[in-house]
Design a protein that fits this description.
Number of helices: 3
Radius of gyration: 18 Å
Structural class: alpha+beta
Largest sheet: 3 strands, antiparallel
Number of domains: 2
Shape: flat
Order of helices and strands: HHHEEE
């Protein structure tokens, strides 16, 4: 996989000079994804949370996050000795319990008796998130 800092990277726009390096921003996004903390509570003192949130929303809208996720999944599969693209994908779901007054958009999962939301995603056989 190509480096994220290399000029001409197919993943991140590196054409102009920036105030903040993009690598710590990607690291902060991965950390936020892993821990699920609030944007204002990110423990990166040298990066304002607004900057990290800005890049997240921008990259989400222009498809950068999906391209980066697919490239990382393919690199991980190759490292594991498999084909780059999976031949089988599975749809998985999870019921997420919400606080009693947490949200208006909620429902009831009858089989699990969970009051909250149900989210779905597409994973491969090893659990890598694709969609």
């Amino acid at each position: 996989m190509q480096s994220l800092r290399r000029p001409g990277s197919p993943f991140l726009p590196l054409q102009r000079k920036r105030k903040h390096d993009l690598r710590p921003i990607v690291n902060a996004l991965l950390w936020q994804l892993r821990t699920g903390c609030q944007w204002r509570n990110l423990p990166f003192e040298h990066l304002p949370w607004q900057t990290i949130c800005y890049y997240f929303h921008r990259w989400k809208l222009d498809g950068t996050i999906e391209k980066l996720n697919a490239a990382l999944n393919q690199a991980d599969r190759i490292r594991a000795g498999q084909e780059a693209s999976p031949s089988l994908l599975c749809i998985d779901s999870q019921s997420v319990k919400l606080a009693p007054m947490g949200s208006v958009a909620r429902g009831m999962d009858g089989h699990k008796a969970v009051n909250g939301r149900k989210r779905q995603w597409v994973v491969d056989a090893q659990g890598r998130l694709w969609v």
